[in-house]
Amino acid sequence: MRAPAVSLLCLAILFCGIISAQDDSSFQKAQDLCNEGNEAFNDKDYEKAVESFLEAVSYPEIKDWKSNIFYAISCGYSLLGEAEKAFEYLDSAAATGYTDYRQMNADSDFDFLRENNKSRFDNIISRVKSVKSEEIRRKTPIYISEYDNYNGPLEISEYDWRDIDNPQMDTLRTEYKLHEVIGNDGTEFDRMKRLLNWVATRWKHDGSKMAPERNALSILREVEKGKRFCCANYADVLIGCMRSLGYPIRFVGLRTEDAAYYMGGGHGCVEVWSNQYQKWILLDVQNNAWWEHDGTPLSAYECHRLFIDGREDELDFVGQHEGQDYVAAKPLWSVYFYRVTNYWMGESIQLVSDGIAPELIYQLYPQNLDVTDQFDRVYPRLNQTTITLRNDNADSLGNMTVILSHTMPYFDRFVVQIDGDEWGESADTISWVLHDDANTIEAKAVNTAGIEGRTSRITVQSNLGESN
After folding, report:
1. Minimum mean pLDDT among 31-45, 174-188, 215-229: which range?
2. Maximum Cα–Cα distance for the chain, whole Å?
3. Per residue in 405-436, is it b (16+ CB within 10 Å) or e — as a string?
């Protein structure tokens, strides 16, 4: 209802008059006109209400309440069905300092304006909201003006992140010149694709053979003797190579709907964490391929969801094997997305959130599955940094304590940049003394292989100098 809001408006003006202008006849006249406008609104005589408020707003003595009166005039014109005049006075209300955007947005008197020109009405709401926000900020000694900071789960200790600083990893990197394989140019995904291609072309697939030892160095040396192995061993080699270079990676088991009952219904792939895409992406090493949707590489679970939802036609099978028709091969391989199991060094976990029950028998072998419906547990966001700001001293608001935490496997150190200066190594807790105006802190984690995680950024606006 409109009437209560107008009543509040006129009471406010009346209150102001009692305090500061009891003997001012002009102010008294303006008050009387506002009272007339309010009574006319209660009687739904909107023409009379608008007339009274238009006359009242002409008095310079009520300049501090102009925005509220303009608002009331706009309400009247809206209820009279005069959109252009209603918008004109609503613009005037905003221009002269009206800031109650919530009241404006909820006011049923403006239903006609919303129906007439919703975009114009929404634009006025946005401007009023912006003015209100700026008003609040001017009165706040310290506030955060920009925030691009990770605030998800931080616990990654339950996962088995095998050590990458050991003699076997060193041998794998140096003996096979893996840094030269991935190169330095292009995007992160370009480098991953080079390593994928290198592993995928080491030998010809033999689905009947499993390597006696499932580690990259052993398999590669067997391959050099002419041995050939299955899809799972391709995945094993890429896992070892990627890990030796500092990329978080894991084995992924894909299965067709009836995989429990016949051999060949499963397929071994990998998922690697991508800083570039800020998510896990699936790599099919045997096929030297990956899956995309609208040009973006997908995780195994994203592929699974599209397949289960009957949208497998939206999946694109993309690969690097010369002469392989990936378009023709797509129907043969997309059926493996019926069920997905993620592995961390032998420990398996299956995400169940679509009604597909887990199987405890797979190709006649018992499975020990950790089943969960927690997406973040199966697909943790890695290489993130959280910046936490604290101030425990009421007498020194400008002295902030910065606490850094991370989700980076193989973590080595934090690096921090303040106000655009040089990046420097940082402890996980530091002091940050704010200066007037904008203060920006950026932080990221770096792992032992030198790979940098995502940058978190917070800008704090300090008005302490102005307050003093």
Report:
1. 31-45
2. 107
3. bbbbbbbbebbbbbeeeeeeebeeebebebee
Q: Across the chain, what does the average pLDDT equal? A: 88
How much is the pTM? Answer: 0.74
Q: What are the tokens at 101?
A: 């955007």
Q: Is the dihedral of CA 36, 39, 41, 45 positive or negative?
A: negative
Q: Which of 422, 420, 351, 404 is nearest to 380 (CA)?
A: 351
When pLDDT is averaged across residues 140-158 and rounded to a whole number, the result is 88
How large is the average pLDDT for residues 115-128? 92
CB contact set of 118 (below 8 Å; sequence gap of 6+): none
Rounded (5°) CA angle 201-204-205: 115
Q: At what angle do helices 231-244 and 188-200 cross, to 10 degrees?
A: 140
Structure tokens at 130: 């912006």
- Which residues are CB-contacts of 16 (< 8 A; sequence separation ≥ 6)? 64, 65
**What domains are there in the chain, each with its CATH number?**
3-139 (1.25.40), 143-153+382-467 (2.60.40.10), 167-378 (3.10.620)
**Burial category of 194 from C-beta neighbours within 10 Å (exposed 0-12, middle 13-18, buried 19 and up):** middle
Cβ neighbour number for residue 31 with a 10 Å cutoff: 22
pLDDT at position 320 over 90: yes
List residues bridging with 234 in a β-sheet.
none
Q: Which one, of 396, 402, 397, lies nearest residue 418 by Cα?
A: 402
Asked if the model's pLDDT at residue 269 lies above 60, the reply is yes
Residues present in the chain in total: 468
Contact 299, 280 (CB under 8 A): yes
N-terminal to C-terminal alpha carbon distance within the chain:
44
pLDDT the model gives residue 20: 42
